[in-house]
Write a structure and sequence with these properties.
The complex is a heterodimer of chains A (397) and B (164). Chain A contains 14 helices and two strands; from the N terminus they run ααααββαααααααααα. A two-stranded antiparallel ribbon of chain A has the order 1-2. Chain A is mostly helical and 397 residues long. Chain A has a domain at 66-274 and 330-396. With 164 residues, chain B is mainly α. Chain B has two domains: 2-124, Up-down Bundle (Four Helix Bundle (Hemerythrin (Met), subunit A)); 125-164. Helices cover 74% and strands 0% of the residues of chain B. Chain B is built from six helices and no strands. In chain B, α1 (2-22) packs antiparallel against α2 (26-46). The model of chain B has no long low-confidence stretch (mean pLDDT 83). The chains are: A mainly alpha (397), B mainly alpha (164). Chains A and B meet through α5 and α6 of A and α2 and α3 of B.
Chain lengths: 397, 164
């Protein structure tokens, strides 16, 4: 009992669970992305390894682990080895303050669904992301390769520039919520969709939300801001000289950063794990309804399958979806599963947006990229912050 | 516990600070400076000033030092060549004299009873800092920002190309 209640034991268990879930999500996020882009471009995507390519991430991991780990002779060895380590560490560090759900009871222990609640949580995430720049910059420089160097330079200039509108966009909802702790931030948005920062307050933060999302695309080096790794001009940018697990660390860092910014957008603007409307109006039944519709659709397509193997796979997926929908009705798991569902649904929607944009938009030119943030995004974020702070001061008097 | 942490991070800060001067390559020096900033942030945390610690990492280590490294990389500065060790002859005694003077003044100005004891610090949160900045220290705060603005405009004027 004392062992179960000790801070160290609970923290270790939570860290293990969060790490395992995060790593699985990272691997499968890449599968989801390939599938989404494939379907946008009207092709099936990964299809060979496992049903509908579901084992593709596993195959990729084995491939990356067993590939030869090259160490080019002309690199600056200590910094070359430090860079991927720095990138992945800083990317994973910010996850530790992200809250996924409310206070829950597991057997005799009650704990928060969060690794740690800092009262400067928002600043911690900003600090970790600003330190993550070093991973990319040093990778570019230590590789001793002109393409890598230009990639690293582009990336650092881009990240410094977009950090400004991003910080201003974060500041505005913080003024409304009046806290820097991510947990309190979410708890002050409880109730319904009209209490979320994107719609709530003296000045709804819709502009701020859009500015944050655009800056987040640039901070994670995603299309249309992926100039640091523009393959038709820079080979692969800052990670040109990296192979095997070192390349995989950069890859994982990029996806972990994507998850972090999506989670941050959810927490800051979309009410975190809060349901969009109250349980009295049946928000508790929503996950079941969504999974049931998905399950029935899968069963229908299984019955009218075009491809032969779909006759087997679609009904199996349909049954799994229906079972998951049923799990949401069990009262003993509802306490933690429902908040987790809403958190994952909102974060997932933003992650889907990332993929959708990648499949749709072409890349910016470099001068457009810089002009856009300094001449448009920054003034808009500044104006939004001014109006918000004025109205907050006006209404709280 | 607090004292042990203080000793560890103070040692890291001092070693990194010496490394800034000793390294011949500008990138290594800049990275050592990042190490100094990082360990200073931990020391602020130990003093209970969590907001200052976060600002230290975001502003100094995250923004200013990235700009430094950016400029060093852009200019592609190489390692310096050492010119003998004759600088050590006046340098070492001067450093020792300076440190001794500092220790003397610090000991004179702050008697034993007012020295910092670690642990149990509070009141370094964002609210307290904001309150202090906008009430007690409003004038110095605003004057500093104008000073920085002047420096920025000066840099732009100096760097601007002449337009006929």
């Amino acid at each position: 009992m004392e062992l179960l209640d000790s801070f160290l034991f609970i923290s270790l268990i939570k860290a293990g669970v969060v790490f395992a879930v995060l790593m699985t999500t990272l691997a499968y996020l890449q599968w989801v992305e390939r599938k989404v882009i494939a379907h946008v471009q009207v092709r099936p995507g990964p299809y060979r390894v496992g049903p509908h390519g579901l084992l593709q991430p596993l195959a990729d991991v084995i491939k990356l682990l067993t590939k030869e780990d090259l160490l080019p002779p002309y690199v600056n060895k200590p910094l070359y080895l430090l860079a991927p380590f720095l990138a992945i560490t800083m990317a994973l560090l910010s996850i530790s303050v992200i809250p996924f759900g409310p206070r829950i009871a597991v057997g005799p222990v009650t704990t928060y669904m969060q690794l740690t609640d800092l009262n400067i949580g928002v600043l911690f995430v900003l600090a970790a992301s600003s330190m993550g720049v070093y991973g990319i910059v040093l990778a570019g420089w230590a590789s001793n390769n002109k393409y890598a160097l230009i990639g690293g330079l582009r990336s650092s200039a881009q990240m410094i520039s977009y950090e400004l509108p991003m910080s201003l966009a974060i500041a505005a909802p913080l003024l409304i919520s009046n806290t820097l702790s991510l947990r309190q931030l979410v708890e002050r948005q409880a109730g319904s969709i009209f209490q979320w920062n994107v719609l709530h307050g003296p000045f709804p933060q819709a502009i701020s939300f859009i500015v944050f999302l655009i800056a987040a695309f640039a901070e994670t080096n995603r299309v249309p801001f992926d100039l640091p790794e523009a393959e038709n001009e820079l080979v692969a940018g800052f990670h040109t000289e990296y192979s095997s697990m070192k390349f995989a660390s950069f890859f994982m860092a990029e996806y972990a950063n994507m998850i972090t910014v999506s989670a941050m957008a959810t927490l800051l603007f979309l009410g975190g794990w809060m349901a969009p409307w109250s349980a009295a109006w049946g928000s508790n039944l929503m996950p079941t309804a969504i999974f049931s519709v998905a399950g029935i659709a899968a069963l229908y397509h299984g019955a009218h399958a075009v491809r032969r193997r779909d006759k087997l796979t679609f009904p199996v997926f349909g049954v799994i979806f229906l079972l998951v929908g049923g799990v949401f009705l069990l009262p003993m798991v509802q306490g933690w599963l429902l908040p987790l569902f809403w958190f994952a649904a909102k974060t997932g929607a933003i992650l889907f947006l990332f993929m959708w944009v990648r499949a749709t938009l072409p890349r910016f030119r470099y001068d457009q990229l810089m002009g856009f943030t300094w001449k448009f995004l920054f003034p808009v974020a500044m104006l939004n912050l001014l109006v918000t702070s004025f109205l907050v001061a006006w209404t709280t008097k | 516990m607090d004292v042990i942490l203080f000793l560890i991070f103070a040692l890291i800060a001092v070693v990194c600070a010496i490394n800034v001067v000793v390294q011949t390559h500008p990138i290594s020096s800049a990275l050592s400076l990042v190490g100094v900033m990082g360990s200073l942030a931990v020391l602020y945390l130990l003093l209970g000033a969590e907001f200052i610690a976060a600002a230290q990492v975001i502003v100094y280590a995250g923004a200013i030092m990235v700009l430094f490294i950016f400029v060093i990389m852009l200019l592609n500065a190489g390692a310096e060549t050492r010119k003998g060790r004759s600088y050590l002859i006046p340098g070492v005694p001067l450093v020792i004299a300076f440190l001794a003077l500092m220790a003397f003044f610090v000991q004179r100005m702050f008697p034993e009873s007012t020295m910092v004891r670690f642990g149990g610090f509070t009141g370094g949160g964002p609210a307290e800092i904001g309150h202090a900045l906008f009430t007690t220290y409003l004038l110095p705060f605003e004057v500093t920002s104008i000073l920085i603005l002047v420096a920025l405009i000066g840099a732009i004027v100096l760097a601007r190309k002449e337009i006929e």
